[in-house]
Design brief:
Elements lengths: L9 H7 L2 H15 L2 E5 L2 E6 L1 H10 L3 E3 L7 E5 L1 H10 L4 E3 L8 H11 L3 H12 L4 E4 L7 E4 L10 E7 L9 H13 L3 E8 L8 H4 L3 E7 L10 H36 L37 H9 L6 H15 L1
Parallel strand pairs: 1-5, 8-9
Antiparallel strand pairs: 1-2, 2-4, 3-4, 6-7, 7-8, 9-10
Helix pairs in contact: 2-3, 4-5, 4-6, 9-11, 10-11
């Protein structure tokens, strides 16, 4: 499933303004302003100026909060987003409730307390963010994240992301979970992306341990018989369709020849034998092919049922031909 751009010029805009450059501009702006955010429960609050507000919006970090302040715009960052800006990009400082800036280790331990699986979620988040994918919360789709190729205003999300860690026995461990999740992803035109985070024997004591984690990507889609047929079956089905078309063509041709032959028989020399003098006329040329000129039994009424047998194997589009044949048979017998 490829990207679904929102509008004709959306793809061109995305190519002209790549996400990697936007994030680089945001990183430089935060470094120059010595930006500092503050912890607030399970989120991080950041006050941004006009320039940083635009860059945070374009880079899709956090969500704006409506306040009465006009000179500042507040953004609410998720734990993974905030730690990515702080630890991976080194462009944001985060202070605790005591207004003292926390170091990477203290911040890591704090976020682990707030979110048990934070180390694995952060590794999955940073894994895709470093590949310039935009990640947003996926709670409304029953997943952990949704991944966008660029800004959500330009393109729809392509992947519904679920993060699985070592010893995770809670999700996607039975087939019914897979079926439900895949059907849901298919109904919203997304591909299910499973990120298996393997700690490789390392713990989660410090953020440096996460650098030794490995991430395995696995996409799961619903199997469709119509799209997964092998070449042999596809060719057989194609041959059946072709054969049906040939049969239909033959039946139509036979009907035309039958009608034409019937008209020729009505204008035969036997019917014109009583005409004498100048009104007598020669029989019209037979419309049948040369090989059938002397075989007028094809137009005999008793041959019509055999034609019905050929027509019965055709599609419903030939039902009108049956009606015409029946009408012709009644007229011909009279």
């Amino acid at each position: 499933m490829g990207p679904r751009w929102k509008g004709k010029g959306a793809e061109a805009k995305a190519l002209a303004d790549p996400m990697s450059e936007i994030v680089s501009q945001l990183q430089s702006s935060l470094l120059q302003s010595n930006a500092c955010a503050s912890l607030s429960g399970c989120s991080v609050l950041l006050a941004a100026g006009t320039e940083q507000t635009e860059l945070l919006t374009r880079a899709c970090f956090g969500k704006p909060i409506i306040t009465a302040e006009k000179d500042k715009q507040w953004f609410q960052l998720g734990l993974e987003e905030a730690f990515y800006l702080c630890y991976s990009l080194k462009c944001l400082k985060i202070a605790g409730e005591d207004n003292f800036v926390k170091n990477d280790l203290d911040l890591w331990l704090y976020m682990k307390l707030k979110k048990e699986k934070f180390p694995d979620f952060y590794k999955a988040y940073s894994h895709l963010r470093m590949k310039n994918w935009v990640l947003r919360p996926g709670l409304q789709y029953g997943v952990d994240f949704v991944a966008y190729r660029h800004h959500p205003s330009l393109v729809h999300s392509e992947y519904a992301v679920i993060v699985l860690s070592e010893g995770d026995t809670g999700r996607l461990r039975v087939w019914s979970d897979f079926h439900c999740t895949i059907r849901l992803c298919g109904s919203v035109a997304k591909t299910l992306l499973i990120l298996n985070v393997d700690r490789n024997g390392h713990g989660a004591i410090s953020p440096s341990h996460s650098e030794r984690y490995s991430v395995e990507e696995c996409t799961i889609t619903r199997w469709s018989p119509e799209q997964s047929r092998d070449d042999k079956k596809a060719s057989e089905n194609g041959a059946k369709v072709s054969g049906l078309n040939v049969q239909s063509i033959l039946a139509i041709t036979a009907f035309i020849m039958l009608v034409a032959a019937g008209k020729g028989k009505q204008a035969s020399p036997t019917n014109d034998a009583n005409l004498t003098g100048p009104k007598a006329r020669a029989p019209p040329p037979s419309p049948c092919p040369p090989s059938m000129k002397n075989d007028m039994s094809f137009a005999h009424p008793h041959t019509v049922p055999s034609l019905f047998i050929a027509l019965s194997a055709s599609t419903k589009t030939l039902q009108s031909l049956k009606t015409s044949l029946q009408s012709y048979q009644t007229t011909h017998r009279r």
